[in-house]
Design goal:
With 419 residues, the protein is α+β, with helices and mostly antiparallel strands. Helices cover 31% and strands 25% of the residues. This is CRAL-TRIO domain-containing protein.
Length: 419
């Protein structure tokens, strides 16, 4: 079991020489070999990657995290940066106040009101790490998945991590030191049995959330502290194997006594409930000493209405569905001709993991542009649904890709309509 660095988990300092001179770098896994560093800091690669991100993201600390995450694989970094920036543009949270976005955007708002988390302003640090809080007491994941599609949670998690990213960058700009994020997750009230079966709703949800953490933000969220663990530690680690890879597991620290969090974080960053001095009197948290908002309970009246979206465009409900099997490493496109101003709506369920996205083509498929970001999904309690306004006339492709390496195809039931 990892114990982590004490008091803020500051990264170890080391000085290395790169292609442009001496640099002080932080982080546990940066190779100091000249060939590696010359490749990492190639002028042309730096310029190419830097052109893909906002100016305030284009810092040495930002790119050092990506280089560590992908061990200097420039092609891998470029691919994931493109996906990340596409998600920011398509969901509309690039260049906006992230806290206001999380409170107002229909997908993010409907998601985070169900979870007990700390406020979105991300302004509490312990040393150089921002401290995020979450509690599981009163949060029933199986019930939440009856109220919202899984995609709501996954899209919202991207936005949450982007807010953390901005807080880190602002801190780095202010201090000249690298920053990170730690999450303190209080497991009190969690039913561990919900995670023992890797095919359960809770385990599938956790696995796909962790997938985003691992692929896009592994060097941002550097520690996950688990408090009040239910059951035997060996069982918890067995559940973790189903949910996260070994590298991500190494970021998890289980604390048997909640007050032990004070061995790792400053009192000012730890809630009064846990023996610290942190209190939130903004009105967001209840009680203020918890520094977390109370989760909105899921009642029968909150269960997801799959017909509502279609009735809003004068259809009787979910349209007749088609069924296909998508083989491993294959894709299935549903192509619709749309005019500017029309709505494209989709509904689907699947029995395995599928990458879903919407792409636009003005020239019959010769070139494509993402208009709804690609994420990996599976079906839980509610079907996957959504809609976009077609901003340009042309072909829109609802694309389902089976990226898994398994030999069993994924069965897809879908309906895509234009109005």
């Amino acid at each position: 079991m990892s114990s982590g660095n004490r008091k803020g988990d500051s990264f170890p300092r080391r000085t290395t020489v790169d292609c442009r001179g001496t640099r002080t770098q932080w982080g546990p896994r940066v190779s100091a070999t000249p060939n590696y560093l010359c490749r990492v800091f190639s002028y042309f690669e730096w310029e190419k990657l830097g052109s893909k991100v906002p100016a305030d993201f284009n810092t040495e600390f930002f790119w050092a995290r990506w280089f560590r995450a992908y061990n200097g694989d420039i092609a891998g970094i470029e691919k994931k940066i493109d996906e990340y920036m596409t998600h920011r543009r398509n969901m509309g949270y690039d260049g906006v106040d992230i806290a206001k976005f999380l409170h107002a955007h229909p997908i993010a708002k409907a998601t985070f009101e169900r979870f007990a988390i700390s406020r979105h302003e991300n302004d509490v640090f312990s040393g150089d790490v921002m401290v995020f809080l979450q509690k599981m007491d009163g949060v029933e994941l199986k019930e939440i998945m009856k109220a919202i599609p899984l995609s709501n949670v996954l899209h919202s998690y991207y936005v949450l991590q982007d807010g953390w990213q901005r807080a880190m960058l602002a801190h780095e700009q202010k201090t000249g030191r690298p920053a990170g994020v730690v999450s303190v997750l209080d497991l009190k009230g969690l039913n561990l049995a919900d995670f023992i079966n890797p095919l359960s709703t809770s385990a599938k949800l956790a696995r796909l959330v962790v997938k985003i953490w691992s692929e896009f933000f592994s060097e941002n969220l550097i520690r996950l502290y688990l408090l009040n663990p239910p059951g035997i530690l060996s069982v918890i680690w067995q559940c973790a194997k189903f949910i996260m890879d070994k590298r991500t597991q190494s970021r998890v620290v289980i604390l048997q006594k909640p007050e032990d969090i004070l061995l790792h974080l400053d009192k000012e960053a730890v809630p009064v409930e846990l023996g610290g001095l942190r209190i939130d009197e903004s009105g967001f948290s209840h009680p203020p000493e918890s520094c977390c908002n109370p989760p909105k309970p899921v009642t029968n009246g909150c269960h997801y209405d799959q017909d509502k979206m279609f009735k809003e465009i004068n259809l009787q409900g979910v349209p007749d569905l088609k069924t296909v099997s998508v083989k491993s490493k294959h894709k299935h496109d549903v192509t619709k001709e749309c005019k500017e101003g029309q709505h494209l709506l989709w509904h689907f369920t699947i029995n395995g993991d599928i990458d879903f996205e919407i792409v636009y083509s003005a020239d019959g498929g010769k070139t494509e542009e993402s208009v709804w970001p690609r994420i990996t999904l599976t079906s839980l309690k509610a079907p996957e649904q959504g809609k976009i306004v077609c901003k340009r006339t042309g072909q829109y492709h609802a694309r389902f890709t089976n990226s898994t390496g398994g030999w069993i195809p994924v069965k897809l039931h879908y309906g895509v309509v234009v109005r």
